[in-house]
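Figure 2 data, in text form.
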Amino acid sequence: MTRYADIPKPIRSGIVIVDPERGTPQRIIVLQFNPDTLERSISPQAAGGSGDAGGGGSGGDRNEALRLKGPAQETWKFTAELDATDQFEVAAPDGIHPQLATLEMLVQPTTAQLRDATKLARKGTIEISPIEMPLTLFTWGSKRVMPVRLTELSVNESAFDVNLNPIRASLSIGMKVLTVSDLPAGHRGAELYLAHLAQKERLAGTARAGTLAALGLTGADIGTGRV
């Protein structure tokens, strides 16, 4: 008989906030439930041309048709669920306010950062640099760990306690994978992206190769262009 203790616990997806200088995790956000579906969009950065999003439309330089300017632009979208009633053993006097606030602070500067920017403005600083946020990693198992920037956070709160604290919500989360084209050379995030890309290369190398025969072709058909 299989015991519940013998059943491995599923790995959770989540977000890790990393100090870009030291590489140490500052905060770990574990999603309460793994999303049921993931929507991924990958757009190549084709060299030259105009028309489609990848720059490979008509009117481009024919010599550039097979060239890439850099890594593909990749976006992820998924829906995350939060439910305070699913964890009866954990006291939740504020409902899911803390979890929502943690995610919202991924796209918000802190009060200290805003006050510092206001002080610089009052001192007459001509140019104030945009506020830099911590390095954010999205993890979906050990084979998908990538630097990202949140591009969308839409919250649908669907249940509340007697004090109007939200106790159930679904969040539509969109993120852009940051590549070496987005980050400065030598940035820790750029190195993490290269590690993510190298993982893709390793996985692609393990895929079983097809054959021309399965396509109804031969090497001579390809070599002579008679297809």
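Caption note: The chain has four helices and seven strands.
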